[in-house]
Amino acid sequence: MAEEPIRIVLAADDDYAFPLAASVRSIVDNANRERPLEVVVLSCGISAESKRRLSASWDAGASGLVRFLDVDVSSLSAWPTSSPFLSHPTSATYARLLLPQLLPDWDKVIYLDVDTITLSPFDDLWDLDLHGLPLGAVIDPFNPSIGSPRGVQCWEEAGLDPGAPYFNAGMLVINLAVWRRDQIAAKALAYVEEHAACIGLLDQEALNAVVNGEFLAVDESWNMTDIRFGAPHPAASEIPAISEAALRGPRVRHFTGKRKPWKTGYLIPDAADLFFSYADRTAWAGRRAGAE
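User: That's the sequence. What structure does it adopt?
Assistant: Structure tokens below.
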């Protein structure tokens, strides 16, 4: 019997084609060659030309491993994309809530934001037992609980436990079977609609509200955000410490915040170097911050 592949999905629109190219390149370059891998890119309006360049970016060592799945962007346009906490909001973020219906034959998937660089095979993460929970994720170091300042904004109105753990949704191990059974995605979208006036971090916030702390907390190395590497923030001193060993061994780097390595004004040189080391293995080789 063939071994089940590790299944990974990302979602992007055409504006994010460049970071998408680098992100998928890093997944492929660091994959375990002894284990099957499937990567699906949810295309939320990626142009034919960008798809051509993206495919060319991944062909080396990834032939047949990566495929596009077009998403009807009109189905996403009804949901809010403005946020006081986000500088690059896009309706593509809601595409992950369509995964149970877009991938009906899959019962499990790893979801990644496109502003990530992978530095490790995903075997250990994929093999985690979710114990029947809807997802596994990293507790947000800056907003560790639902009642945190950038946690669930309407937690009291929604009747949630403010002390329940809150996750960053940039990396999720999703139990699609449980999502279908418990209608997690539908409940999240209903939450967005009901609380549109006060929601902060869009579907991340909605998923946290629906799950209400009932998720598997995984090691922070699987979603190491910029705040851990010196990204400026007025409340950085309040973030719980992390070991030097963990800082030296991130498995997924996540470029959170308003500044990104491919944009001007990014302030973490080693992270920018890391991003461009993979971007230079794509059809965008040589492009640097601020280039169109």
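The chain has a mean pLDDT of 89.
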